[in-house]
Amino acid sequence: MKKACLIILMWGIGYIARGQYTEALYEFLANPGLKYAAIGLSVKQVSDGREILSYHADMALTPASVAKIIPTWFALQEKGENYRYKTPVYYTGDIHNGVLRGNIILQASGDPTLDSRYFPNHSALKALVDTIRKSGIRQIEGTIIVENAKDGMAIPGSWLWEDISNYYGALYLPFNYRDNTYTLHFKTGTVGTRAELLSVEPFLPGIRIENEVMVAADNKDNAWIYGGPYSSVFRVAGTLPPNRADFCVKGALHRPACTFVHELMKMLSEEGIVIHQKLLPIKRKNEWFCLYSPALKDIVYHTNKSSVNLFAEALGRLMTNETWQEKVVALFSGVGIDAAGCMLHDACGLSPMNAIPAQVLTDLLVYIGRNKHTAFLSSLSVAGIDRNVSVYSYSCPKLKNRMQAKTGSMSGIRSLTGYLIQNNGNKLAFTLLINHYTCSLSQLQNSVSQLFSALL
Q1: pTM (2 d.p.)
Q2: CB 383, CB 392: distance < 8 Å
Q3: Percent with pLDDT over 90 in the chain
Q4: Which letter does DSSP use for residue 34 in this model?
Q5: Distance (Å, rounded) from C-alpha 112 to C-alpha 318?
């Protein structure tokens, strides 16, 4: 009898809670800025997968960067958290009396982290220069070559022209350097004048920059770079804020191997090492040493924490050379999740043609939550600690340290997927996808905060 009463009591509490959750959902949907929006919401209990709250959870919507949880999780599962990319370095000819009578060759292997700003203590350039110097080489009769630097280079067919030459649209290549990013330094004066292009860092061999950037009263970076990976001229247009001594605009580095070789030769020259830059015949390659990337768990950490598109694309390619869509369906099938509604054209979420149901991502997080994989979980941002998620705890402090999530954004799109810790210690997995909202971002964030606070 007591057991029956307890069951009835627990059912009653659960019923009341679900009623409160539904009321919170109605309040969320009452935001006028969501009147014309497409919204998908899926909230489930991690312990047993029981649905807590749902709204159009099976509708395939544009996910933006929350799609990154797919390559990051499955890469850890397939390759292991300690996997490292390996870039072999060879020399041809022979080394005699401080003279290398041959070439130095790097074999591109897909490492996305070479001289990345996310790994400041991991410099391929420094490692190469130090090795060459310690080998006693003072003269290189040949040149420096990066093999297979562009093999398989292709722009994902659905990426926007406005994106591919700006830093977040940097292509993943067999050889990557400096996050495949360069920086334009501008000086701006009064409104209505042309911004002055001061410098380009690093140097872009074979590229000319056409500057059409004007100064506007807006205190925003509205400058855009145009020019694809096969272009020799990049056009920079748009506006920048007034009276700035050094305003930085970042672009996508389409020829990272050329820039890498240029910078390596410059560093060697500064070390007093002479390079004749003649391509000598390659009869045999001698194994020399390897450049190793940081561990996969560290790459995953920055992929999700900082939402690095280049890293996400690298992890997707690490697992398959076929289409990402086919691989994703197979990966989900392997863990018992139906991914029939997924349409994924890239691994990072940049394509506006990507679509995925909220419940698919939530089901994946339920699966991950039960496995308690530390390397993945630590890559999700925490409210109250990480800025991109903390915006939701500013108006609702209850969320601080109790919401851990990956965020995603595009014009008119905001998405969140992650975990909530309830007052009783239960862990919830959730996904919220919002497409085409019309209110201000702060209004939207406040509504989202109120909804998630009600779930605690």
Answers
A1: 0.92
A2: yes
A3: 85
A4: G
A5: 11
